[in-house]
Amino acid sequence: MSPGLPFLTSPVDALMVDLDGTLVDTLGDFTAALRLMLAELGLQPPDQAPISATAVETMVGKGSEHLIASALSHVLAAAPAAGQTAESLYPAAWDSYQRHYLAINGQHSKVYPGVLEGLMQWQAAGLPLACLTNKPVAFANELLKIKQLNGFFAVVFGGDSFDRKKPDPLPLLKTCEALGTQPARTLMVGDSMNDARAARGAGCPVALVTYGYNHGEPVQTVDADAYIDSLASLALPPRSG
């Protein structure tokens, strides 16, 4: 047990770290790509943005499919388009969003304070790190490269890496396999109920950052083992053996 970390009942051999809302504030990227998508689909209201960053924040965390469908439903609820539904627009919206997000990936985002210090601290302790996100893995790898964070991670898995996404425990279990660690000794660090539910299902300890998205709800309402204001504040002892 590490001093100051009473929630750890066994040593930590590795960490899995979420990306959006945990490592990088990507709300600006999501909002920009969605606005470009909606404008391309003809869903741009006159003289105003089709969707606010505040609304987008509540939709983030369950993968691109959920984000796109939620954005379409949100805009159509506010301004119905004759003969158009979220379902009918989805195929074109998916293609448009992927193209626009690829073009702006990382341009409207920033690394959170304390992230670099935290990653360096864990790396120095000899703890293998995995980035585990619901973002498509190609977008995740590119963003990590742009923000110069890619060198910290032994593996990177996205929402399209496995058959199911967080909050299903499968991605965490598969990531533990890739790291060669036991779930009970692999800490999940994220920002939302998706990370916490997945960790609980997989049998992993979980710490949640207080500055992320969590669908617009206070993260302290989520069942987790710890809440941290910065990755730098999560000091872990060196890996044993």
Structural summary, described in words:
The model has no long low-confidence stretch (mean pLDDT 92). The protein has eight helices and eight strands, in the order ββααααβαβαβαβαββ. The chain is elongated. The strands form two sheets. Strands 5-4-1-6-7-8 form a six-stranded parallel β-sheet, sandwiched between helices. The chain starts with 13 loop residues before the first strand and ends in a 13-residue tail after the last strand. With 241 residues, it is of the alpha/beta class.
Explain briefly what this protein structure is:
This protein is α/β, with parallel strands linked by helices. The protein has helices at 27-40, 53-57, 64-78, 86-104, 115-124, 137-146, 170-179, 193-202; strands at residues 14-17, 24-25, 110-111, 129-132, 155-157, 186-190, 206-209, 226-228. The relative contact order is 0.20.
Topology:
Elements lengths: L13 E4 L6 E2 L1 H14 L12 H5 L6 H15 L7 H19 L5 E2 L3 H10 L4 E4 L4 H10 L8 E3 L12 H10 L6 E5 L2 H10 L3 E4 L16 E3 L13
Parallel strand pairs: 1-4, 1-6, 4-5, 6-7, 7-8
Antiparallel strand pairs: 2-3
Helix pairs in contact: 1-4, 3-4
List the main descriptive attributes of the protein structure presented here:
single chain, 241 residues, alpha/beta, 6-stranded parallel beta sheet, two-stranded antiparallel sheet, elongated
Largest sheet descriptor: 6 strands, parallel
Average pLDDT over all residues: 92
Number of strands: 8
Order of helices and strands: EEHHHHEHEHEHEHEE
The low-pLDDT segments are none
- Rg value: 18 Å
Structural class: alpha/beta
Distance between the termini: 15 Å
Instruction: Report strand order across the widest sheet.
Output: 5-4-1-6-7-8
Helices, by number, come to 8
Give helix % range: 25-40%
User: How big a fraction of the residues is strand?
Assistant: 5-15%
General form: elongated
